[in-house]
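Recall that a protein's primary structure is simply its ordered list of amino acids. Everything else, from secondary elements to tertiary packing, is in principle encoded there. The following example makes that idea concrete.
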Amino acid sequence: MHAAIPNFGPELQRAMRLGHAHGVESNEIEQLGAMLAGGLVADGMAIVLKLAFGALVFLGEFDSGAKNRFFEDNFVIRDPNAAGGKRYYQGKFLFSTLKADEDMNVLLEFCPDPEDLYIGGMLNPAAVVKTRALSNEEAEGLQRKAFGVDLVIQFKDISAVLGLLKGGSVDMVGLLLENQVRFTGNTGHLFKFGNIGANIQAAAAMKA
């Protein structure tokens, strides 16, 4: 199970620092503290997930070859039946809490628009990971829709989410064992999600 679920700790914080250092969505970084203080947890979590899974690998510390290799290894699926012999991993994850009145819903999508992944033959990092906060109504509608979301990750309450967002190391396995988080949907995507997270951690360690 530990191999399936990334431990969000120093690597996530490093991703945020890299994003700020390179000026990518730096305004979002600056807004994060105010969002959390104001109770806008879903918006803050959308930023954190976007940076943790997107910014770290695709920023200036990595040359174009390294970026392309990481993308190929993690998001390209060889498929002889697909156009050009390949398709892209398009997992969709909904993060929420078990308390509906907290209105904490965040959608994370990998490669949602394949046609935008390359611009002039160059990888477009902005199209690899997309996140957005949703209302309860939007989140419920997405779960009812066929193929609307692959995996739902529900935290017990907003306090568990704040532990992830406000720094420190958050062990998702520990939260699971303590009944602080619940997973619903295709668990195969849980392992893919964890694999991407682990590879980002490995990339961060190499650049540390």
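The first strand starts at residue 7 and ends at 8. Residues 138 and 144 are 10 Å apart (CA to CA).
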